[in-house]
Write a structure and sequence with these properties.
Blueprint: H1 3-12, E1 18-24, E2 27-31, H2 39-53, E3 60-65, E4 86-88, E5 97-99, H3 115-125, E6 134-142, H4 150-162, E7 171-176, H5 186-189, E8 192-197, H6 209-213, E9 218-223, E10 248-251, H7 260-263, H8 277-290, H9 292-309, H10 312-328, H11 336-339, E11 342-345, E12 353-356, E13 361-363, H12 368-374, H13 389-398, H14 401-404, H15 408-473
Parallel strand pairs: 3-4, 4-5, 6-7, 6-8, 8-9, 9-10
Antiparallel strand pairs: 1-2, 1-3, 2-13, 11-12
Length: 481
């Protein structure tokens, strides 16, 4: 990989979608960036935690695509000479990016907990018994017209057919047009037996598939019936998943509008696909209801995969191997990326070009307090896409991310002890309550027993008075012989 090729990849990415990280002698440097949700700063913090775990990593120079999916399409003749390593949260075989762990593994300050924390919480708090879950399928997310991807078309079709009169009430569709207009937590999804996943604009990582698999609910993933191999988008989890083993694959019907040849006929009725996406989902629900043991087995297999494989230890190991392999392929020293004084073109001709050297980089501080002072708040983004310094400070200074990556056995033992303590406390409370109730019943029974002789004398006295009254009047009572 040549410096010119790395610069070329950096040039081709839009300014709002790129950043660059250079490691020189153990010090991390980051190029000026403008990424939504400040993803570049989350990745910078992730790299600091990685360097703490793997202090022997060699120097590297990598470009980060901080958008949802890949953007650098490879030339038709294949790889270009000296192709650089471009990190992205998801990748495709026809693009130059390589999949890296997405930023949600380290959380989104003020919006999403780190995976190391949320994973343990979901495993111990959101596990409702299968029979107590709602026998419905829930789908949440955003539908907008910013993208024309298959995922957006799928969501639009699903929302349309679910809103029609007579639609199956088991389809609980909560799509909205504004980001964070209504955020449905993973715990809310875990209350349902079935979770529908229709990736909005890009890969399933953006729809938090790992969180929803961890529910232990059956994930129904809407996928193309015959996808082209080069157009399949994947992240670090997708290639581990197998349909009908870890999730249920629901093949999409044709979503394209009717052809002009069909609608141009005189008196022709506009044709619709024979089976809508809602029909296929209802069939999937009916199958799961008719085969509950198989459905639950698939759901538990997906949960076990995410629980055992997608630990932070494995995430850091993958990340370290990725950067280690890239550094061995460099044909230049990473420090040259900052020393060289060269022009970097902008994809937008109106913005022109800029000089690129050490002035474009800033050193990433390793101290959490200093890191908080180093981050910036870009208010040019809408309110829903901003992260306050206070949120970042709360996460960085109150949580030690390097210690959150405990293995599952340790965290499970700790939480198991806490749960056992809660159960013992509840058992003691129940025993105390039952003893109090028994004592109360004994007191009432004793009081009734004391009152019983008095009521007997009273009744005999009343009977004697009635007998005397009858004898005086000469009228036979009802029991007189």
């Amino acid at each position: 990989m040549t410096l010119a090729a790395t610069d070329s990849a950096y040039e081709q990415l839009p300014p709002y979608a790129r950043s660059r990280f250079v490691l020189v002698s153990g010090m991390l440097w980051k190029a000026t960036a403008r990424c939504i949700y400040r993803r570049d700063e989350v990745v910078a913090w992730a790299l600091l935690q990685l360097l703490e775990r793997y202090p022997g990593l060699p120097d590297f120079d990598v470009v980060l695509n901080c958008r949802d999916g890949p953007l650098l399409r490879l030339p038709r003749r294949g790889l270009w000479k000296g192709q650089p390593l471009v990190l992205s949260f998801s990748a495709m075989s026809e693009h130059a990016e390589v999949a890296m762990p997405d930023y949600t593994f380290w959380g989104l300050p003020g919006k999403l907990k780190p995976w190391s924390v949320l994973r343990v919480e979901l495993l111990h708090r959101a596990q409702k018994p299968w029979r107590r879950r709602l026998s419905r399928a829930i789908a949440t997310g955003v539908v907008n017209d910013y993208h024309s991807t298959l995922g957006v078309q799928t969501r639009q079709a699903l929302a349309a057919c679910a809103a029609r009169p007579g639609a199956d009430k088991r389809l609980v569709i909560h799509y909205h047009s504004l980001y964070f207009a209504r955020y449905y937590s993973t715990e809310e999804h875990c209350a349902y037996k079935y979770i529908i996943l229709a990736p909005g604009s890009h890969a399933v990582w953006l729809d938090h598939m790992k969180h929803k698999l961890l529910c232990g609910s059956l994930v129904m993933l809407l996928e193309p019936a015959h996808p082209a191999p080069r157009t399949v988008q994947y992240d670090i989890l997708t290639r581990l998943l197998r349909p009908s083993v870890h999730y249920l694959s629901v093949k999409l019907p044709p979503l394209a509008p009717p052809s002009k040849a069909t609608s141009s006929k005189v008196g022709a009725v506009e044709e619709r696909p024979e089976r809508t996406v809602c029909d296929l989902l209802v069939d999937a629900i009916n199958w799961a209801e008719a085969n509950p043991e198989t459905a639950q087995k698939i759901a538990l297999a997906g949960r076990a995969l995410v629980r055992d494989v997608l630990t932070m230890d494995h995430v850091y190991a993958y990340f370290a191997e990725l950067l280690n392999a890239s550094s061995t392929l460099l044909g230049y020293r990473p420090v040259q990326a900052m020393q060289a004084h060269r022009m970097i073109a902008d994809p937008n001709p109106k913005r022109g070009s800029q000089w690129f050297n050490a002035s474009n980089f800033s050193r990433v501080p390793t101290d959490p307090d200093e890191f908080v002072r180093w981050i910036r708040n870009d208010t040019s983004y809408p309110a829903h896409a901003q992260i306050r310094e206070a949120d970042f400070e709360a996460v960085l200074l109150r949580h030690d991310f390097s210690r959150m990556g405990l293995d599952f056995a340790t965290s499970a033992r700790r939480h198991r002890a806490q749960i056992e303590e809660m159960r013992n406390h509840q058992k003691t409370s129940d025993e105390t309550r039952r003893s109090a109730e028994d004592e109360g019943r004994r007191v009432v029974a004793a009081a009734v027993e004391r009152e019983r002789p008095r009521s007997g004398r009273r009744n005999r006295r009343r009977a004697a008075i009635r007998a005397a009254a009858v004898a005086t009047s000469g009228i036979a009572g009802p029991h007189t012989p």
